[in-house]
Amino acid sequence: MEDANQAEVVELGFEETYPLREAVLWPGRPDLAALDCDPHGKHWGMRRRGELVSVISVFVDGDGREAQFRKFATALECQGQGLGSILLKHVMDQAQQQGVHRLWCNARSNQAGFYEKRGMQPADGGATFLKNGVEYICMEMDLRDSP
């Protein structure tokens, strides 16, 4: 396993996230890799040896109390190495520093355990829903309760 400390978190332009989003989340569906709201978000990535290996996009609501992260993707060959965890922790820390109260995402149901291990809980009683043939669950975290 490669040392995750050899990677760095970087801010990205939203267009830079598209290739990895498509490759990991929606292979062959570039239309589902892009979001209309992308120009209004903040986009982060994890680079290792110059290669973009993980991406995440964050959208803060109008009053700054809630933030949603979307299109979180880590290259398949890099999963399980801690890179996505580092990137998500960066987003959580940034949101908390900005005074965000609630951080949430619509996670693929098969990834709910990943988020639970990082302090997030199912919202809405754990109800799931389908979108584009994929089952999702809303996961959330109250950042006011986080250390």
UniProtKB/TrEMBL annotation:
Q: Which residues form the N-acetyltransferase domain?
A: 4-144
Q: One GO BP annotation here?
A: UDP-N-acetylglucosamine biosynthetic process
**What Gene Ontology molecular-function terms does this entry list?**
acyltransferase activity, transferring groups other than amino-acyl groups
Task: Please identify the protein, giving its name as recorded.
Answer: YitI protein
Which InterPro entries is this protein grouped with? Acyl_CoA_acyltransferase (IPR016181), GNAT_dom (IPR000182)
Q: Which domain of life is it from?
A: Eukaryota
